[in-house]
């Protein structure tokens, strides 16, 4: 066996809740199976990568607030004449609230320097702000908030994927149990019929039974053999299907064999120990925690941020730049200087689209998207509520069906036992015994099928509410 197979088999073995020394088989519980899916399934690992990508995008969006060091060195020399030599290192510090600070020095020398720049050495401390579009809100903050909402959205989408994946695994697991128990029924019936056939054959040879009883016993044995072979095939197919959800740590699919059997002991397979959730509380929890609803909320948060940005576009652009200046490379003393008396540089930039058609159109589109997502949430809420109610109703009905089916099984068992006693006393025929046995097998199969549906429906209550994690 390859090493990945040994690793996953060891994982199953470590999580085993039951070990049958007689058959040397390991029993795998549902919780253990779901743990394996959570750890190794590629869909979950893939969704983790998507979350990492969203987190990386969030980190990248925060980069707009990183301090930046800029150096500008511009010079010109022509015909042995130095026109200018301009050197300007500058540190810029953007802030969350739309105010950008800067500090730097300038060295501007030459015969024909730019008169708008300070000659020789100087230093400055400055600030840049847009009081209309920057102080209230700005696109930099919006980008970070949208990236943060996107991280939440990817996590909620992952929860939705996990919710569906774990439920699919649960269905496959219980179908495996159903096939396992049905196969066990026919194995036991096969042993019984083999013994009965040998018993009837000996009785016929001794003259105590008619030849027709031998034919009846053989016919029943052959029927059970056929049904057992089909049950064994169904068990193998169910095992293959469940193996679809089992992967190794090396991202390789794992196929477990017949040495692993389902756990049919304890509370896991005892319907009487299972309590249904309170419907009203389940619906209330679903309205708060269902990942599909939370994903819609995150999408709306992203649109609301976009709406704020589009609203800002309706405002005029009004940018103010101000620098405190000082000679040489001295740091300007902000407390000794007046703002607009000496040693300063000041500028204002103003802009306003006159018709605002683009801004108004973009804002209206965003508002329409928000209204659309509100309708989508209401519809999703209704769908989730009805799904929870439907699954809950199925669970409630299955409890009643189980009670009737279990009583029917016990009645058929009593009838078969009585028929066997009559047969041993010579008061019944092989035909009647076979008929009673078939009825018992059918009722037991139906009981197992109902138990399977019931336990699937119990998990389905959590799945419908989006609570499987």
Write the layout of secondary structure elements.
Blueprint: H1 3-14, E1 18-20, E2 25-28, H2 30-40, H3 42-61, E3 68-78, E4 81-94, E5 99-109, E6 120-129, H4 139-205, H5 211-243, E7 260-262, H6 279-289, H7 291-312, E8 317-327, E9 344-351, H8 357-424, H9 430-464
Parallel strand pairs: 2-7
Antiparallel strand pairs: 1-2, 3-4, 4-5, 5-6, 6-8, 8-9
Helix pairs in contact: 2-4, 3-4, 4-5, 4-7, 4-9, 6-8, 7-8, 8-9
Description:
This protein has 469 residues and is an alpha+beta fold. It has a domain at 3-18 and 27-40 and 141-303 and 367-464: Outer membrane efflux proteins (OEP). 59% of the residues lie in helices and 16% in strands. It has nine helices and nine strands. It has helices spanning 3-14, 30-40, 42-61, 139-205, 211-243, 279-289, 291-312, 357-424, 430-464; strands at residues 18-20, 25-28, 68-78, 81-94, 99-109, 120-129, 260-262, 317-327, 344-351. Strands 3-4-5-6-8-9 form a six-stranded antiparallel beta sheet, with no helix packed on it. Strands 1-2-7 form a three-stranded mixed beta sheet. The longest helix is centred in the last third of the chain and has 68 residues, at 357-424. The radius of gyration is 39 Å and the shape is elongated.
Determine the CATH topology of the domain at 3-18 and 27-40 and 141-303 and 367-464: Outer membrane efflux proteins (OEP)
Corresponding CATH architecture of the domain at 3-18 and 27-40 and 141-303 and 367-464: Up-down Bundle
The average pLDDT value, as a whole number, equals 87
The biggest sheet amounts to: 6 strands, antiparallel
The top-level CATH class of the domain at 3-18 and 27-40 and 141-303 and 367-464 is Mainly Alpha
Strand order of the largest sheet: 3-4-5-6-8-9
User: Secondary-structure element order, as H and E?
Assistant: HEEHHEEEEHHEHHEEHH
- Mass-distribution shape: elongated
Helical content stands at 55-70%
């Amino acid at each position: 066996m390859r090493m990945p197979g040994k690793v996953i088999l060891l994982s199953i073995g470590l999580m085993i809740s039951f070990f049958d020394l007689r058959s040397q088989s390991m029993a795998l519980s549902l919780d253990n199976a779901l743990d394996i899916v959570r750890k190794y399934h590629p869909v979950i690992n893939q969704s983790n990568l998507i979350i990492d990508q969203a987190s990386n995008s969030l980190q990248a969006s925060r980069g707009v607030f990183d301090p930046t060091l800029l150096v500008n060195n511009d010079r010109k020399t022509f015909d042995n004449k130095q026109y200018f030599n301009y050197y300007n290192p500058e540190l810029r510090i953007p802030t969350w609230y739309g105010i950008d600070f800067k500090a730097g020095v300038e060295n501007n020398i030459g015969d024909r320097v730019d008169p708008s720049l300070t000659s020789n050495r100087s230093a400055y401390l400055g600030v840049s702000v847009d009081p209309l579009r920057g102080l209230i809100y700005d696109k930099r903050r919006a980008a970070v908030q949208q990236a943060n909402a996107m991280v939440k959205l990817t996590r909620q989408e992952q929860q939705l994927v996990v919710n569906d994946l774990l439920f699919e695994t649960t269905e496959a697991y219980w179908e495996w149990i159903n096939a396992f128990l049905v196969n066990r029924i026919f194995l036991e019936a096969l042993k019984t019929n083999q013994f009965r056939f040998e018993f009837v054959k000996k009785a016929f040879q001794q003259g105590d039974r008619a030849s027709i009883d031998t034919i009846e016993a053989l016919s029943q044995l052959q029927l059970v053999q056929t049904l057992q072979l089909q049950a064994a095939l169904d068990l193998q197919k169910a095992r293959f299907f469940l193996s679809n959800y089992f992967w190794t740590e090396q991202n390789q699919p794992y196929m477990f064999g017949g040495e692993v059997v389902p756990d049919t002991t304890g509370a896991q397979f005892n319907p009487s120990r299972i309590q249904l959730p309170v419907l009203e509380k389940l619906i209330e929890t679903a309205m708060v925690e269902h990942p599909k609803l939370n994903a819609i909320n995150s999408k709306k948060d992203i649109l609301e941020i976009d709406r704020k940005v589009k609203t800002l576009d309706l405002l005029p652009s009004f940018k103010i730049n101000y620098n405190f200046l000082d000679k040489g490379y001295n740091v300007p003393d902000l407390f000794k200087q007046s703002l607009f008396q000496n040693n300063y540089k000041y500028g204002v930039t103003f802009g306003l689209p006159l018709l605002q058609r683009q801004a108004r159109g973009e804002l209206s589109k965003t508002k329409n998207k928000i209204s659309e997502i509100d309708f989508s949430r209401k519809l999703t809420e209704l769908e989730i509520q009805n799904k929870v109610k439907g699954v809950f109703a199925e669970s409630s009905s299955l409890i009643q069906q189980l009670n009737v089916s279990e009583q029917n099984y016990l009645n058929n068992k009593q009838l078969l036992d009585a028929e066997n006693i009559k047969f041993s006393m010579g008061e019944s025929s092989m035909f009647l015994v076979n008929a009673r046995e078939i009825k018992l097998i059918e009722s037991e199969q139906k009981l197992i099928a109902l138990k399977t549906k019931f336990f699937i429906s119990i998990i389905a209550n959590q799945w419908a509410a989006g609570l499987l994690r």
